[in-house]
Design brief:
single chain; alpha+beta; Pdz3 Domain; four-stranded antiparallel sheet; 10 strands; 52% helix
């Protein structure tokens, strides 16, 4: 059951991503030859009008195959024969739809479960927060130059900026105060801490607050993904710590097992939270300026817009093909690591 749930979640997120490409392609009069869910051989395909809608054997991935996307085409409705701005809109639509989906899911979660304000309910003895004079009831609003809206942002900031002196801005009785703290490494929890804790409860708000905090939720996951990629680039995180489809399915399954005894609503909210993280992550990853990814295609289109001359499609296609090969190799490595962790 949990594997089926994980595959359905993953498939829906990918399908929504490809739907962005599909709708913007249709909007710009581009011929879509095939819209598919999955990879590999076709299990079933139905043609409606000019487009074939297919379900592939492997349930990971998807595609919106447009005429003339990676090669020359005489068709006036081919992708390559549209304006550079139309093509940029189509390419960007996939990641954009991921962020839209994250926002819609966040609306559901926050409307039901509420949000976590960055309010302190207690201060630990012997930690920097106590020395700086923070008290229960204070609300943290900024860490260095980063605005804080969710309590989780405090922990994640210290995770990405360990052993770093941080200027903390907070509210007390409506007045702004500022102090400076350096997080202390906690051996028991194995992380850097200010020595504060929140209530762990989530607050329900009005319609405006639900919309506002849904945006904060999406922002939180986008920033977390970008910061994590930064750690990967700088070597603070190794490739062996990355998770692919197998690892993601296992994580979703583990989450399901942990909360299923708490009732259907808790299971639903936890899976929705996981989906918000996944779709925001997919949106960010696809915007990376790497060959074969949407970001790589946007990079070539931006160059074309600047030069006012299209790059040779064959040369661009070769670069993207090389990118696909490298991504497949990376996927094999990540999948191997996922399987090894299962054993």
């Amino acid at each position: 059951m949990k594997i089926v749930i994980a595959i359905l979640m993953f498939s829906f997120i990918i399908l929504f991503h490809e739907l962005g490409h599909f709708l913007l392609a249709k909007k710009n009069g581009i011929r879509v030859n095939e819209f598919s869910l999955g990879l590999g051989p076709t299990i079933v395909g139905i043609k409606r009008g000019e487009t074939k809608y297919s379900l592939k054997l492997l349930p990971f991935g998807g595609a919106c195959a447009m005429e003339g996307e990676d090669s020359e085409s005489e068709d006036a409705r081919a992708f390559g024969n549209k304006s550079v701005w139309a093509r940029m809109a189509v390419v960007f639509a996939g990641p954009a739809f991921n962020f839209i989906l994250a926002f819609l899911l966040a609306l559901v979660v926050i409307a039901i479960a509420g949000f976590d304000r960055p309010e302190i309910v207690g201060v630990m003895d012997g930690y920097p927060a106590q020395e700086a004079g923070l008290q229960a009831g204070d609300t943290i609003t900024k860490l260095n130059h980063k605005k804080i809206h969710l309590y989780r942002e405090i922990s994640i900031y210290t995770f990405f900026h360990p052993d770093e002196t941080i200027t903390v801005q907070y509210l007390r009785d409506g007045q702004k105060y500022t102090c400076t703290m350096t997080p202390l490494y906690d051996e028991e929890n194995e992380r850097y801490m200010f020595g504060i804790y929140g209530s762990g409860e989530r607050e329900r708000g009005n319609v405006l607050e639900i919309l506002q905090y849904s945006l904060y939720e999406v922002k939180y996951w986008i920033v977390t993904t970008v910061e994590s990629l930064g750690m990967l680039v700088t070597g603070q995180v190794s490739v062996n710590e990355l998770s692919g489809p197998v690892g993601i399915v296992k994580s979703i399954g583990d989450t399901y097992d942990e909360v299923k005894s708490s009732g259907a609503l808790i299971v639903f909210l936890n899976l929705m939270n996981y989906s918000i993280m996944l779709t925001a992550n997919l949106g960010v990853m696809n915007l990376l300026p790497l060959p074969a990814l949407d970001g790589g295609r946007l990079f070539f289109l931006i160059i074309e817009a600047i030069r006012r001359k299209r790059i040779n499609p064959e040369h661009e296609g070769m670069v993207h093909f090389a990118g696909i090969v490298l991504l497949m190799l990376l996927m094999v490595v990540v999948m191997f690591n996922d399987i090894r962790k299962l054993l």
